Amino acid sequence: MVELPTICGKHVVYYPAALVGEAMHGRFYAFGTACECPMAYLIHIEPDGAHCKAADTAEVISGLYEKLAGEEYEIEDDDGSFWCKRLPGPFQQKMEP
Q1: Which of 18, 64, 71, 72 is the most exposed place for a label (fewest CB within 10 A)?
Q2: Dihedral sign (CA 22, 27, 32, 36)
Q3: 34 with 58: CB under 8 angstroms?
């Protein structure tokens, strides 16, 4: 798992290292996550790393995630199941307000 510091500056979240390898091969993903604060995040894995695209309530982040184009995938490893969406390509995603 890859550790990602959250915007709050107090916590970290994790995502599968397999997504780093995918990004190195031109396949990009998005996922929603949350830290111990009452804050959720929409994260995109891009060529230069993981980027927080939005921070809001879990409900808002879930809605943004659902609106993203792309097929949803489940990654299973020793840490369990991890759900994410494969995005059409880098920087092609448009988020609705």
Answers
A1: 71
A2: positive
A3: yes
